[in-house]
Predict the structure.
Amino acid sequence: MKPVSATIETKPVHGEVIIRFNEVVFEFGHQKPILSGASFSVRRGAKVTLMGQNGAGKSTIFKLITGELPPEEGDVIVEKGLSIATARQVIARSELELSVLEFFERAFPKKIYDIEPRVKKVLEAVHLSAPLTRALKTFSGGQQARILLAQALIQDSDILLLDEPTNNLDKQGIAHLTQFLIDYKKTCIVISHDADFLNAFTHGVLYLDSFTRKVEQYPGNYLAVVEEIKARLERERMKNVRLEKDIAHRKEQANFFAQKGGHMRDVARKMNEKIVELEGDMVEGRQEDKTIRKFFIPCQEDITGVILSLSSVSVIRDHKPVVKKVKIDLKKKEHLLLAGPNGIGKTTLLEKLASGHAKGEHIQEGIRVGYYRQDFSTLDFEQTVYDALKDVVRGGTIESLRSHAAGFLLDANILKTKIGALSEGQKGLVAFAAITLQHPGLLILDEPTNHINFRHIPVIAEALHRYEGAMILVSHVPDFVQKIRIDQTLDLGEL
């Protein structure tokens, strides 16, 4: 299997081309190149995965398709008359005060007179029951993910763009979305790092290479494409090894002949020309295939005894809180998995625990809490990445801080960037880099794999597995949880 320049030709797709990128160039302020002469096309009825490294520009491609961003060069052609709906990753902060009904009304350019029954019907389709007057900010992350998906579905558009649609969804939600997409008859492009989800319905992959800034196109299911990309990279690496040996040998010979003078110098010159040609054949390492370095989260020193105790929790039943008694004590090296369906109250509990305002809980005095929020609201979006890390670092030099950031793929340019301008995946890496510098005694993590590139997830799992402080984890990704030592489980849905 090789990347193709034509459209995806898998068997289920027979429609005409409805989206085409022709030599598209796009940059952010000429500081962050995204696309450089990118060309690809998508047929009517195709279900395509868009993959690439965190921050490569996948969400930007969606904005180019919708027309929210214009290309700087080249053409983005979408068949005239087609409607497009996008299910975003997160609800904008400016929209959190809206009611459910107001949020859905914004999906339409004109007033819809039968909007309420339509909203109720589409909420049923994503398995969510909620009053239409309820504010968006009061919903859990999983419920907000369902609302974002429903807002896209209610538009019944010709092209559906899904940006990380499984983030925050529980097992039931993912299964329902998967079946919906299997049955879906229209065109769909999905950004996701959930391999099993993608493999269930995809016809092909658009692969955004953040080094060449081009889009490669592969037919086939997601897992087969991922394996082909890995194999191709290994072939490129082996090719470079062979070329390096050949070049080194030829350089030795060229130097030897150059010292002989006369006709031998002409031989040396031709050999040097060949060396330049061989060096041009070498394939430079691809940035998007880098993985974050293995890291260790240091635990706060000199802590003993019970770090956190919990005697009661509040769970949500029929949109109302109900207090339930529990008995949880966490000491050093003890990890708790907090489980339960979307909307049961997991995120709310974590928020209150992190702030010290949860009823029935006690955190030992002096304990530093490292809190990974799924919406990254613990980060100041107006700060640069460098300033955010500098605020939490405990000792060390500027050079050591930069080296630490580089381990999370936060290079010199990203360090100068405001956090609000980063992709969601890059924000996640900043959050992990900051937590590692904090040396927490209690670590609270709410869906830490959301938005994170699949290559980084095993590294993060290993770091959490080895963490020696007390830890509370919420995650709906079984493969991730299985890689982490869990000592206790509290399922709010069973209380």
